[in-house]
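Lab notebook page, bench 4
Experiment: in silico fold of construct C2
Operator: M.H.
Input chain length: 107 residues
Purpose: comparison with the prior construct
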Amino acid sequence: MYCKRGALSKAIAAQREALALEVEPEADLYYNLACYLAMQFSAAGATDKAQLEESVGLLRRAVELSSNFAETALKDPDFADVFRQKPEFAQFLREQLGAGERLKREG
């Protein structure tokens, strides 16, 4: 909602609040916050390393909770600068995606 109106910091604050209220963590909350932080990281010139690390950590948590987010993130242009700065994390997501596909075939 806030992102569509260009209020990225409000979107980040709202997402943080939603995460703080969660009794059971939901992957989409982690994913959305990671995405908003990645967007802010890109908009600020891709230089804030703390923001980069937080985005990566949140995205990792989203993928741990739901492996479907690995594929989603790899296709999401909002994470392009994150993956450029941390190519090893993009590789981790591809590996998670591959592991999920293997499980589907074997199951």
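Observations: Helices lie at 8-21, 27-43, 49-65, 68-75, 80-85, 87-106. The mean pLDDT is 86.
Next step: discuss at group meeting.
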